[in-house]
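Incident log, structure service

09:12 report received: a user says their structure output differs between two submissions of the same chain.
09:20 pulled the input from the user's history:
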Amino acid sequence: MLSARNVSFGYPRAPHRAVGGVSLDVSRGAFVGILGPNGSGKTTLLKLLGGLLTPSTGEVTFVNSRFKDAFSAAAFRARSRISICMKITGIQNRPATA
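09:34 re-ran on a clean worker, output below:
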């Protein structure tokens, strides 16, 4: 299970937090979609859940192991077992160029 508890993150010098107070649980084998407008923190949240960023507050756990930071053993284990697929809109309608 992947869990987030009250996770927040802000980029340096940004006027506001990119992610604020998110909590969720994802069961083994689940497929989850994260939807929202541009700039709403979707990519940042996925990076937090995948162990690529360290939350400013709150915690992310994977199979009951807390991510202390992006370089922790738990984060490395999670990255080997979690898939993140980003959709870039508009790119599929562009003609191929050589």
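09:41 both user submissions now match this output. Likely a transient worker issue. Closing.
09:42 reviewer note: The first helix runs from residue 42 to 49. Helices lie at 42-49, 73-81.
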